[in-house]
Specification:
With 235 residues, the chain is mainly beta. It contains three helices and 13 strands, in the order αβαββββββαββββββ. A 13-stranded mixed sheet has the order 1-8-9-10-11-12-2-3-4-5-6-7-13. β9 (157-166) and β10 (175-181) form a beta hairpin. The two termini are 20 Å apart. Residues 14-22 have low confidence and may be disordered.
Length: 235
């Protein structure tokens, strides 16, 4: 189970043109503007693609998944859901896997299945799990140093580029780079880079649609009967 939880961590953890950064822009001003942009969104849907790799037990695990993401804002809260599926490849073998996550009322629910081995969890939703890039930046700042890089474009969208590096000196050169769409306040791409300077995982959001009628029942996560749910919300 520990190996499977580390694989899911790749995702949870989880063609551009370089443009000059706006003069006078700072991490703090980007956080503020991103929050304002995201705050105007009532509903959002998108296609999700995840590619990643990790070293575990002396072998390389590769994942390649795709799926969907939906978001709806409530009065003082929000609901979001991600459903992805694909392959986990290790030691020359491939296993089909799925993962479904729902965030609502400050709680993240997760159901994942790797080759017929299910995992179900309930945990506190941390700031770094937020779809709102401003909230995500606030969560990352607790244990990371954020740096603003030159603006870029992804799929024609102007994006802020924010680098996050761990404050822990033992983390080496590992870091994450977020590409935040200016008009959305959403990190449309997040790349996690290992200490060797090469990407470990990449998650991208595309085919983004706003203002759709997304019904509340779509955020209900159904756990199959007999699957034990590990609940750490009170820890």
């Amino acid at each position: 189970m520990a190996n499977r939880l580390r694989v899911w961590g790749i995702v949870l953890g989880l063609t551009w043109l370089v443009m000059p950064a706006v003069a006078g822009e700072t991490v703090e001003s980007v956080e503020k503007k991103a929050g304002e942009s995201f705050g105007r969104i009532k509903t959002l849907s998108a296609k999700v693609d995840v590619v990643g790799k990790m070293l575990t037990a002396g072998s390389v695990v590769n994942v390649e998944w795709d799926g969907t993401f939906i978001y709806a804002r409530l009065d003082d809260d929000y609901m979001s859901r991600m459903d992805i599926r694909g392959l986990i490849q290790q030691d020359g073998t491939s296993v089909e896997a799925t993962m479904n996550t729902v965030i609502m009322g400050g709680v993240m629910q997760l159901y994942a299945d790797q080759g017929g081995k299910p995992i179900a969890r309930r945990m506190k939703a941390e700031d770094i799990h937020s779809s709102n890039a401003a909230v995500m930046m606030r969560g990352l700042r607790k244990e990371n140093t954020l740096k603003l890089l030159p603006d870029e474009k992804i799929d024609g969208r102007p994006v802020w580029v924010v680098e996050s590096k761990p404050k822990d000196p033992n983390a080496g050169e590992s870091r994450a780079v977020m590409f935040i769409a200016k008009e959305l306040g959403l990190a449309v791409k997040v790349v996690r880079i290992g200490s060797d300077g090469k990407p470990d995982s990449t998650i991208t959001f595309s085919d983004i649609k706003l203002g759709e009628d997304i019904k509340p029942h779509r955020f209900v996560l159904r756990i199959p009967p007999g699957v034990q749910v590990i609940d750490t919300t009170n820890e």
